[in-house]
Every structure is written in structure tokens, then in C-alpha cells.
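#struct-pred
JK: can someone run the complex with coenzyme A? inputs below
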Amino acid sequence: MERSPLKNQPWRGVVRQLRPSDLPRFREHLLRLDAESRHDRFNGVTNDAYLSAYAERCFHDGTTVIGYVEDDKVLGAAELHERPDLPEPTGEIAFSVEREIQHRGIGSALFERLIMNARGLGYEKLRVTTHPGNLAMKALARKFDAHLSFENLETVGEIDLGKPAVPELRPRRSGPVRASHW
Ligand SMILES: CC(C)(COP(=O)(O)OP(=O)(O)OC[C@H]1O[C@@H](n2cnc3c(N)ncnc32)[C@H](O)[C@@H]1OP(=O)(O)O)[C@@H](O)C(=O)NCCC(=O)NCCS
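RT: done, C-alpha cells with the ligand placed:
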């Protein structure tokens, strides 16, 4: 793979959850993906109409989208889609980082933030699916301890998040709180 000339430069952007008003920025990001990244991300489907409709759907079906935002543009995104058909609370995740800024740790930062959101939503498992030749996605998934297997001609990565932590609740003290003496 060709290394980005920006590889060692610090980022100027932020990683944050996208707001409803970010839909046009997310759509523009998907439309800027080059042919190979589109193919890797969408397993072959690459036309603009499909990507525009896809962006729209994500913002209307409750998908969580985390973005890497620089100069008011979304240049990378991580999506968390619910898989209510699976027995455990499971999220299907997907990533896209524009080619000029790939290999600079942005995919990893999006992944970290996505895991945080997934835990907050009570997911116990994350799944990522890609084609077996997608070395970048496989490396990224392994970095986050995904167990990789081969299913229906695809590589499936599964990450176990465990059960949501139960907060330690303390009974509230009744009666007046006495000032402590120093
Ligand atoms: C997959 C993708 C999101 C990775 O994003 P990224 O910003 O380049 O990822 P990072 O820079 O955080 O790299 C993550 C790890 O993968 C490794 N990696 C990245 N590209 C690689 C490649 N082509 N081959 C092997 N390893 C690679 C990195 O070395 C890094 O590991 P390290 O931190 O131990 O060095 C990005 O390549 C992309 O958007 N590809 C097109 C869309 C796609 O394939 N999506 C996945 C399907 S859902």
C-alpha cells in the first residue's frame, strides 16, 4: 500500500459523534471515497445514488455515526448499526477513512470512540464484516482484539465487550447531614 505523505503529521481535526445536522457532511465524505475504498467499505456497491441513500438511512434509523471532522468536513467515519436479529445485544460496525489520511491512526481513534459509545448503549458484542483481502481492516480489527473467522466468503471479526458494568449504588443517607468537625 502507498503510504500517505501526511503519515507523521499531527491531526488537526476532532473525533466526535455526528449530529443530525452533519448528514450532508457524512454524505459528502462517503461520496469522496475513492473507488478502492468504496469497494472495501461496501463490498462492491459503489455508485453515488446508493451512497447518498445509505447516508440518509443511517441518519434516520438510529445508527450511531462517529466522525473524524477537520475544517468542518467529515474525513473519516465509524458506524454502529444494531443487529436486533442476533441473540446478544450486538452492533455491526463499519469504518471509512479517506485515502489521503489513512494509516495515521484515525481508524484506531474512531474504533476506540465507537467502543465507548457501544458500551454506553449496552452492546455486548461487535461484529465487523469485510472481504478477506482487506488487510487494513483486518489489522484494525485485530488491534481491538477481534476474533476473526471466515463465513460465507467474508471475514467476520467479533469483539466481546462483556456485560454492561453495574454501577455501585449506595443507599442515600436519610436524615440531616451533619457537618463534619475538622
Ligand atoms: C480500514 C481503514 C478504516 C483503516 O483506517 P486507518 O485510519 O488507515 O487505520 P489506522 O491508521 O488506525 O491503522 C490501524 C492499524 O492497521 C494497520 N494497517 C493500516 N493499513 C494497513 C494495510 N493496508 N495493511 C496492513 N496493515 C494496515 C496499521 O498499521 C495500524 O496498526 P498499528 O497501529 O499496530 O500500526 C481504512 O483503511 C479505510 O477506510 N479503508 C477503506 C474502507 C474499508 O476498508 N472499511 C472497512 C470495511 S468496514
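RT: quick notes.
The radius of gyration is 20 Å.
The chain is about 30% helix and 25% strand.
JK: thanks, will look after standup
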